[in-house]
Amino acid sequence: MGAAGDNLLDAPRAAPAVAAAAAPVRDRAEEPLVRVEGFRAAFGRRVVLDDVSFVVHGGEIVVLAGGSGCGKSTLLKHMIGLHRPAAGRILIDGVDVSQVQGERRRALLRTFGVSYQPGALFGSMSLSRNIELVMEEFTDLPPAARRAIALSKLRLVGLERAAEQLPSQVSGGMLKRAAIARAMAVEPKILFLDEPSAGLDPISSAELDQLILDLRRMLGMTFVVVTHELPSIFTIADRCVVLDAARKTKVADETPAWLRDECEDEWVRQFFNRGAGGESAGPPTAATPVAAGTQRPAGTPAQKDASA
Fold first, then answer.
1. How close are the terminal C-alpha atoms of the chain, in Å?
2. Please, which residues have CB within 8 angstroms of residue 290's CB and are 6 or more apart in sequence?
3. Which of 69, 115, 148, 172 could form a disulfide with 179 if both were Cys (CB 3.0 to 4.6 A apart)?
4. How many CB atoms lie within 10 A of CB 47?
């Protein structure tokens, strides 16, 4: 939560912040928070992705998109340091994720949080205890401070009243929100979300999309989100890095609206229009968050023939 959140971790007895003012998006002239350069993912002789490069700036919501089996989750796992790239490098805040060791690695791990597809909360612990556990590992905060911060994180995602419930006692949407609250436990700059809306009904999925937008607005949070859910992509994404399983690489990096309507790659246009000749996957254009000057006048048709 900006400076207030940093003080919480540096001064254990400080009172936890409950809410934060909106944080400005970083100037694009600044060094990107995330830089992927010439990345290759391979397991033995099997190459999953090759020659992938892109950046993520502070305050952006960047979606890793593409069809099933294209390597979205594989890329994310490399970005958070679970696997070492076969070639290239991934830098977070200027630090090579695969090379850093010891205390520098622990410091790097505090700069980002991760929410896995199933939530991955400990089933025998309450929602609050799941969040406190992260602080036990990464901070010297006393139990009372850990508890107060855990409640503040749950309050941010609308779950303060469910703090003592077990993961099995809450709905799928609540479980996803609790996982995001845990990912924010030590005030990270970046949140990595793997298929956050997978398995949710349309209403819960829309509520989760709104939560992501609210956290970006309130905290200036940066998001890297893996998903192929088109309604979510058109709601939250500033940019999409599109991967293709057949070509085993990145094939596009632009705003969702541009990829749907203007991209010269036919496969990309089909993907963002739900197949050749399909109806536009995005919401009405006037309600679609658009970056980089791609907005159209209200009422302008959003669809373009995929064969154009």
1. 46
2. 255, 257
3. 115
4. 15
Strands 61-66 and 190-194: unpaired
- Per-residue pLDDT tens for 238-294? 999 999 999 999 999 999 999 999 999 999 999 999 875 434 444 444 333 333 333
pLDDT digits (tens, 9 = 90+) for 203-236: 989 999 999 999 999 999 999 999 988 999 999 9
* Of 41, 98, 43, residue with least CA distance to 250: 41
Three-state secondary structure of the chain: CHHHHHHHHHCCCCCCCCCCCCCCCCCCCCCCCEEEEEEEEEECCEEEEEEEEEEECCCCEEEEEECCCCCHHHHHHHHCCCCCCCEEEEEECCEECCCCCHHHHHHHHCCEEEECCCCCCCCCCCHHHHHHHHHHHHCCCCHHHHHHHHHHHHHHCCCHHHCCCCHHHCCHHHHHHHHHHHHCCCCCCEEEEECCCCCCCHHHHHHHHHHHHHHHHHHCCEEEEECCCHHHHHHHCCEEEEEECCCCEEEEEECHHHHHHCCCCHHHHHHHCCCCCCCCCCCCHHHCCCCCCCCCCCCCCCCCCCCC
**To the nearest 10°, the Cα dihedral for 248, 250, 255, 258?**
-70
pTM, whole model, 2 decimals?
0.78
